[in-house]
Amino acid sequence: MKNYNSITIIHEDDSLPLFNDNTSLLSPLPNDKQVNYNPHPQDHLAPPFSASQSGDASNRPSSLLVGSFNLIATIIGGGVLSLPIAFQKCGIFTTTLFMLTSAYMTYMSLITLCYSSRRCGGSSYGEVVRSAFGERMEEGVSWLLFIFLLFVLAAYMVLIRDIWTPLVGLAMGGEVDGDRMLMGIIVIMLPFLFQRSLHALRWNCYIGFGSILVLCVALCRGGFQRYYYQEHYGDDGQNGDEGDEATIAATTTSDIEFFKVPTVQDVLFSFPIVMLAFLSHFNILSIQNTLNRPTRQRMKNVTGMAIMASCLLMYLFGLGGYLLYGSKIQGNVLLNIPIAKIPDEDMEEYWLFLLGRIGCGTTLMLAMPLLALPCRDALLEVVDVLFHRSHHRSDSSDASNDTLFWKMLHKLNRNESIDDAAITTEDEVDEIVMDEDITTPERKSPLMSMSPGRNSILIRKDAIQRDWVFRNSMMHYGSTLMIVVCCYIGATKVEGVAEIWSLIGSSLAFLIAFILPFGCFIVIENGVEGSDRHDGWIKASAAMLVLSIVGAVVCTWNRIASM
Q: What is the pTM of this model?
């Protein structure tokens, strides 16, 4: 059992010096200052949540801007295309409330997940759940994330196929096979799909954000212009601008409802769409793991900026689509936008929407690696758990004890080092289990608060993504190709994305986005003693946990009843 007093502590007060001579890494403060300013070291375990002490600046290359765009690109994806129909079902006022509620709850759940990871020492979603509920739950949640992201990635492939196939057909002047088109796009994206960190995909985030912004501008321009014409010149548009009949005829102001009283069915249909649009929890800890100087305040800044920017963009996207097409809006707003030019259509509007469609397709293409990375990490975390279960130092003194599977992985790993060949669990992570003996005088430490409901604390030298299983080349490339092939086969077997969303179900989204983060935070935070415990946050999390459970049950029941 590790001596609690030997844990390396890093100070987190932004008001004090945090940099060493090269101004890129955090440096530990002297012991006397650590005692005075850092009374709760379980919240500041290093190095997963401080800069690496190895002197390698590449371990934490992301700035606040990069971290924010990583999160924005994770949030803004295929779900944004369905937001206009939520406005149509519930009206502008109610959907605005849904957007604000979802944004706030998402912000709180992301922050509580980050706080929980710092309390327990876990550097992944699964490890946070492990600290609260045990190893079996880590395996279960990792499998859940893997399956969920597998379906989401397949849904993205369906959308990419449906967007790019008519565009390429229009450019080539003939029919194009959608499945072959999708395969070609996947081959082009393979170098990005093999990337190991979100920081390496930062340019995907920048370009993807700018690309979806084009379609948002097109929808807002058309929607607000149309609504203005209807209000000032009448529904027939006779007094509107000459040659703008196509711009005016799609909807009337009577289709636009600001204060609609939605039915229960409409609410249960719309709220999961809005809530799913903000889902990004599978990447937040990876962002924290690569963020330079990831203090709690800086993580709050990253999360807050990303949620605000995403909420604003998605709100304008949904509102613009609703104002443009009114009651005629479809589940995917792109289905309302014709590929070919309509007679008498404004040329500027036609080209803007064409560029917007191209931009949306580009955004989804560049978002695929942002989903493939956490999907692969979730699968490899399951393998990592199995590896650590069988490679404790006391059980691994003889290399011949390795099973054929582990021997093959060692042999086929092209980057295998001497240290990797004899690696054990204790070389990567040390787990402090909160058992009944932890309160005995010889094992109790004033530096570590205990709770009978808390399972363990993890002491890591590096984030989980630097474990041997994750670094193993065979596991990395093999799992990536397996995920891509499975998703491609699934995408070619369904007609539309709605079938995949119905398979995922709103219950999984509630579980991943709210129920597990809030549940883990309550269990882990209750184990903190003294003034550093966030009692107010515990109460708020408990309230949102109850609401999330109720929402998951009701929405799931409604989904089952509607089948």
A: 0.83
